[in-house]
Amino acid sequence: MAGAGGGGNDVQWCFSQVKGAIDDDVAEADIISTVEFNHSGELLATGDKGGRVVIFQQDTENKSQPQCRSEYNVYSTFQSHEPEFDYLKSLEIEEKINKIRWLPQKNAAQFLLSTNDKTIKLWKISERDKRPEGYNLKEEDGRCRDSTTITTLRVPVFRPMDLMVEASPRRVFANAHTYHINSISVNSDNETYLSADDLRINLWHLEITDRSFNIVDIKPANMEELTEVITAAEFHPHQCNTFVYSSSKGTIRMCDMRASALCDKHSKLFEEPEDPSNRSFFSEIISSISDVKFSHSGRYMMTRDYLSVKIWDLNMENRPVETYQVHEYLRSKLCSLYENDCIFDKFECCWNGNDSVVMTGSYNNFFRMLDRTQRRDVTLEASRESSKPRQVLKPRRVCAGGKRKKDEISVDSLDFNKKILHTAWHPQENIIAVATTNNLYIFQEKVN
Amino acid sequence: PNCSGEWSRPATETQDPNSNPVKTEEAKLKAKYPNLGQKPGGSDFLMKRLQKGQKYFDSGDYNMAKAKMKNKQLPAATGPEKSIVTGDHIPTPQDLPQRKSSLVTSKLVG
To answer: What is the ipTM of this complex?
Structure first.
C-alpha cells in the first residue's frame, strides 16, 4: 500500500521515532501545541507552549528502496512568538503556538504561518549551501584587509559550505483579533488566508499586514446574550470562495464569500438534531466541536466533539453520514471529567491521504484509527514501552465495566493527564505524527 | 443504500433509558453542586473562555509576578508596616526580570 495513503487492509503500525525528553517532569514550555505536515509530507512542523517551532525533514536518501524506513531529522528550529503583555486589559498574551499551517511550495524556500492567541506570523525557511569567498577588501573572517598590501585583484566565487537553514519572519499580522485565535487556514488561491477567534473571522492577503477584512462577526450587541462561540474554521481545499466554521453548540456553518462581504448569513448549516430525551447538563459541553477538517477530496468534512468523530457530506445538512465513538466509556465519567476540566479538552482529528481512514487522540496516550471503508477501528498507544525500533503497535482495549479481560485496561486506570490532542497524517504515505504532552512519536506502516 | 455508517453505537441508544449513564452523572454533579447555573452551556462558560489569560492589576504587577517566578530575592520593604496595595514592593530596575531568553532550545531537537 506504499504511496496509497490508505489505512485499510490490516495496516500494521510500527514505532519509528520519538522526539523529546524522557523524564516525567515536563516544563510548561515543552508542551506540544500543534503538529502539521507540509503539502509534500517532506517537512513536519511542531509548535509548543514556549512559542517555539521545530521543523523535521524526511530523510530521502533511502526512499527508492521501499524496505527502508525514512526518518525525520531536525531541519530548523526558531522562536516564533514571545510572551507579551496587553497593557489595555492587563492581560498576559501567551506565546503558545496555537496553529501552524504550511503554504504550498512555490520556489526553493518554504513558508509557514504560525499563530498565538493574537498575532499571526509568516515565516520563510530557506537553505543556504554556498557562500562567497575571495573578497578583495576583507578577509574570510570579516576583518578588513589593509588596502596597501593588495597587489592583485581576484574575483570572488561561490564555494560550497555546510548546509545552513535559516528561518526569518517575513510578515507579522497583528492587532486584528480582540479574542483568542483558534484557527488559521490558507485559501486554495494561495494569496489569502483566514484567521478565526472566538467571535470573529478575518480574511487576510499574505502580502498585506496592515489591513484585514472581517468576514464573520457573531458578537452580540449585548454580551449577556452570548450563547455560542466559534471553535474552528477552515477554507475548502478547492473552492476558494467557501469556508466553514464550527461552534461551541455543535453546529457547522458553511459560507460563500461571493454572497456578501460580511458572511454572517451562512449558505449551509450543518446540525444533527438532538434527541430531547438525551438532553442533560453535559449535552452542550460535549457537543462543542473542537476541530473541523475538510477531506482531501473536498466532498466531506469531519468534526470532532468530546466523545465522537462525525463525517458530513457537504450536500447533506441535517445529519452526518457517519458517526464514530472515540471513547464511549467516558459517558459514565462525565461528572468527574467536568470537575477536573478534562471535559473541555480540545481534541483534533485528521484524514489520511485518500480519505479512507481518520485518526484522533484520546486519554492515556491512546489514539484511535477509524477505517471508513472497512468499518473497523483500532486503539493504539504512544508509549516509551512500545518504542523499540520497528516494534509493531498492539491494539489496546478499554474495559468499560464488569469483568476486565486480560490485556484490557479499566476506565478508572486511565491517565487523564496523558492526552493526545494533536495528530497529523502524511499526505501521501502511511506515516503519522502523534504528539503526547511533550513527546512527538512517528509511526510508520509495517513493511515486510 | 445505507448512508448511515454508524457503528459503536452510543450506549444510550440501545439501553433502557432508566439506566442512562449521562443522567446518572448529571445527578451526581447536581448533588455535589446544587447551585450550578441554570444555563450550563450559556454565558458563564463562554465568558470565562473569552477571558482566558492571567489577569494582572497592571503592568507593574505583571513584571513583579514574572520576577517572582524566577525566584529572585526581592529586598524586604523597609519599615514594619507593609500596607500592601499592589504586590510586595516597588521594583527597582535591578529587580525587573531580563527579557525571557529565546535561546532555550526545544527538547524535541536532538
So the answer is: 0.80
